[in-house]
Design a protein that fits this description.
Blueprint: H1 7-14, H2 21-43, H3 50-61, E1 66-69, H4 76-86, E2 87-88, E3 91-95, H5 102-106, E4 107-113, E5 120-126, E6 133-137, H6 144-147, H7 149-156, E7 158-161, E8 164-167, E9 173-178, H8 191-194, E10 199-202, H9 208-218, E11 230-231, H10 232-243, H11 249-260, H12 271-276, E12 277-279, H13 283-299, H14 307-318, E13 323-324, H15 326-330, H16 335-345
Parallel strand pairs: 1-9, 1-10, 2-11, 3-6, 6-9
Antiparallel strand pairs: 4-5, 7-8, 12-13
Amino acid sequence: MTVAADFSKISAALGTSFNDIDSAKRACASFREVYAELRRAVGEIIVGQETIVEQALIALFADGHILLEGVPGLGKTLLVSTLGRVLSLPYARIQFTPDIMPADITGTSIVIDDEKTGKRTFEFRPGPIFHQLVLADEINRATPKSQAALLEAMQERSVTTAGQTHPLVRPFFVMATQNPVEQEGTYPLPEAQLDRFLFKIVVPYTDRQELNTILERTTRNREVDLQPVLDGASIMHAQRLARRIVVAPQVQDYIIRLVLSTHPTGPLISEELKTFIRVGVSPRGAQSLISAAKVKALIDGRYAIAIRDVHEIARAALRHRIVRTFEAEAENVTPDDIIEKLIRHVPREAD
């Protein structure tokens, strides 16, 4: 099957109304077929990094944004640009620098002179944020004022300038990158900004076999002609389909207890975690866990999320939402270490 051949058929399959269990199964099977084609297409360019690619696609179908963190040369920007090629969405790259201004991101109003009437009017010229797929490259190199220009767009899917609010076309997907090594001349993202990202994805080094494949693909005469696999309407149908995945009361309660166990002054946190956590996970973190776990269950062919889905996406969904204490930093206890302890501490069944 060539999935990119007819977007209307994909949209119709993913947007099927659930009148019975058979129609639900057909819609979910169509989603998994499209997802497999997306993975295959991305794999034509990206070598290895299966978990990273899966988490990026989960965020896309969960209608969230991602922050990719890793040292230079690991393929962060390449992953984003590859998604731009396989998704039929308007794509823009914003290179963040210390001198970038908010208007360079959101757009600005310019004065228009009408030669006939002699009147002057203001006309809004949209910035790159008005594309549906936006790469915010090296986001931590911009000043907080410019970083904040993304806040409203990421959360409200709109941009307000000169007192006027301009809605963004959906689906709208921001993928930001940052380098954790070079800190000179950078501005760490504040907690309010980090909380807008569904996932923070840490990009690891490649292994020996993956590096060998990368060299073979990039140092020889090899060209890949990628075709779009999904358009905007199909993505939105897939997002609505994912939202219909069932969350059992006991699983939702587990997620609630998991989040409340990160609150330093709450009754559920353990004494060990209280030593390591200064600020815990917000309600948006619980929303992210459920939204992402629904997509994970759908990918695996299930119609209800399981606790194992929560465990598999917990690090990406929570690592940027936990603020460590001085003791944790001094003892080199990472956010991922804290999440591991959190998962061990919180029982699957409520007392």
